[in-house]
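Budget justification aside, the reviewers requested a transparent look at the raw inputs and outputs of the sequence design task funded under Objective 1. We therefore reproduce one unedited record. The lines immediately below are the C-alpha cells for a 412-residue chain.
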C-alpha cells in the first residue's frame, strides 16, 4: 500500500509539473528540488528516502507520462552513490547539486593501457605537493571525457607497498592545462570513448575520497554501483553534453538527440521493439522465434530483479555481494540474446546501417555495441572468477604479487 501511495503521489506531481516547453535545465532543477528525480536518495540530499524499487517505478511513471527523466550518466550512476556513502559533508555540498540538476558532467579515469581487468596494476602516480597532488599518467576508455567537467580518478600514491594498498581515490577537474583528451573511434563510427593524458595535472588535497593509500575499497564500491547500473529497466545509455536551454519536451520526444539514441532502449521499450521487429518480419507464428522471445522476456525479468537486489543491498549499506557480478553477467547474456534474435528476424537488412536502414540503423548500432558490455565494468571472466571464489568456494588463482611491493614488478 505504501508503494502505491508513493507512486500515486509521484504521478500527481508529474501531471501537475511536467511542461514540455520548459527548458531542460529548469525541469531538471525542479525534479531535483522535488525529490522525484532521485527518490531513493536521502531526504536531505535531493531525495525522498524511498527504496530502489519504488524509485524504478517513479522512473517508469515519468516515462509513461511522456516526461523526460532526470540526468543519467556516470555522475548519477556512480559518483552520487559514492559521495552519499563515503564522501564528507563538505564534498556532498560541493558536488551533489551539480550532479542532480545536470549542470556538471563527470567521467571516470580508471583503466589504463596496461591495467584493465587487473585495475590494481595501474601506474598513474599522484605525488603530494603541499595542499595539492600532482598527477602523471595515462588513462583509456574514458566515456564522455571530451565534455566532462570533472572526473573520478584512481592513482598510485605509494609504490613501496603491495599494489592494492598503495592506491588513492580522487576527484580531478578536467578543464586544466595538465589534462589532454584524445578521442577513440569505435566500429560504429562514434567516438564515445577517449584516452586521457595527465601531465603534472593538479588535484586539490580536499578532493581525496577516503584515506590516502586506501582507495582500493572505494574503487570496489564504485565498481559495484557501475555493475548494478546495468538494470535493463533503467534509463539506458549515458546522456551527452545537452543544451540545458532546449525545451525538455524535445528531448523527451526524441526530436533532439540526447546522446543515448544509438544505445539499448530501456527494458520495456526494448521488449516492445523486439515484438515489433518480429511482427514486421511476419514471424509471429514461427515456433522457434516465439520460444526464443519467451526466453528473452524471462531473462529481462531475471536481470531486473537481480539489479533491484543489488540496489537494495547498496541502499541498506551492505558491502557488494555476488548478486552484483551475477547481475552483470545476466544483463550481458540478455543483451546478447536480444541482439541475436533481432538480427535473425531482420535477415540481410540487419547488416545495413545509417538512416535508411531498418529503424534508422538502431538495431545495427546496438548489435555493434553489445560486445563491449562483456568488457565494461569488469570482464565476464572477472565476474565468473568472483562468483566461483566467493559463492562456490573454489580456490583463488595463484597470486605471486600478493605481498610484494608494486615497485618490485618488472614493467616493459
Amino acid at each position: 500500500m505504501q508503494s502505491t501511495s508513493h507512486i500515486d503521489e509521484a504521478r500527481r506531481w508529474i501531471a501537475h509539473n511536467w511542461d514540455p516547453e520548459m527548458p531542460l535545465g529548469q525541469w531538471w532543477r525542479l525534479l531535483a528540488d522535488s525529490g522525484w528525480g532521485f527518490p531513493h536518495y536521502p531526504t536531505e540530499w535531493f531525495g525522498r528516502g524511498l527504496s530502489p524499487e519504488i524509485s524504478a517505478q517513479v522512473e517508469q511513471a515519468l516515462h509513461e507520462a511522456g516526461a523526460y527523466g532526470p540526468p543519467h550518466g556516470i555522475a548519477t550512476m556512480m559518483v552520487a552513490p559514492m559521495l552519499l556513502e563515503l564522501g564528507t559533508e563538505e564534498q556532498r555540498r560541493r558536488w551533489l547539486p551539480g550532479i542532480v540538476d545536470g549542470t556538471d558532467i563527470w567521467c571516470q579515469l580508471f583503466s589504463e593501457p596496461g591495467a584493465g581487468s587487473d585495475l590494481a596494476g595501474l601506474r598513474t602516480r599522484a605525488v603530494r605537493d603541499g595542499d595539492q597532488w600532482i598527477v602523471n599518467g595515462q588513462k583509456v576508455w574514458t566515456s564522455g571525457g571530451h565534455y566532462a567537467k570533472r572526473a573520478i580518478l584512481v592513482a598510485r600514491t605509494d609504490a613501496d607497498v603491495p599494489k592494492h594498498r598503495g592506491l588513492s581515490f580522487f576527484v580531478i577537474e578536467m578543464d586544466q592545462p595538465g589534462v589532454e583528451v584524445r578521442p577513440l573511434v569505435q566500429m560504429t563510427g562514434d567516438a564515445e570513448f577517449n584516452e586521457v593524458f595527465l601531465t603534472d595535472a593538479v588535484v586539490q588535497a580536499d578532493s581525496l575520497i577516503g584515506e590516502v593509500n586506501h582507495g582500493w575499497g572505494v574503487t570496489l564500491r564504485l565498481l559495484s554501483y557501475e555493475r548494478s547500473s546495468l538494470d535493463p529497466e533503467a534509463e539506458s545509455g549515458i546522456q551527452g553534453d545537452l543544451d540545458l536551454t532546449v525545451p525538455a519536451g524535445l528531448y523527451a520526444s526524441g526530436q533532439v538527440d540526447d546522446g543515448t539514441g544509438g544505445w539499448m532502449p530501456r527494458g520495456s521499450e526494448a521488449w516492445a521493439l523486439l515484438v515489433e521487429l518480429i511482427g514486421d518480419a511476419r514471424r509471429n507464428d514461427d515456433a522457434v522465434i516465439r520460444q526464443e522471445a519467451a526466453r528473452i522476456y524471462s531473462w529481462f525479468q531475471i536481470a531486473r530483479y537481480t539489479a533491484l537486489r543489488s540496489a537494495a543491498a547498496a541502499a541498506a549499506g551492505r558491502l557488494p555481494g555476488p548478486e552484483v557480478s551475477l547481475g552483470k553477467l545476466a544483463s550481458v547474456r540478455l543483451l546478447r540474446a536480444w541482439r541475436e534474435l533481432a538480427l535473425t528476424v531482420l535477415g540481410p537488412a540487419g547488416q545495413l546501417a545509417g538512416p535508411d536502414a531498418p529503424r534508422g540503423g538502431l538495431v545495427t548500432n546496438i548489435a555493434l555495441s553489445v560486445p563491449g558490455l562483456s568488457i565494461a565494468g569488469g570482464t565476464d571472466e572477472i565476474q565468473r572468477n568472483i562468483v566461483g571464489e566467493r559463492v562456490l568456494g573454489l580456490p583463488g588463482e595463484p597470486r605471486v604479487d600478493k605481498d610484494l611491493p608494486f615497485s618490485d614488478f618488472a614493467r616493459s
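The mean pLDDT is 87. The chain has three domains: 2-102, 106-220, 248-390. Computational costs for records of this kind are itemized in the attached budget.
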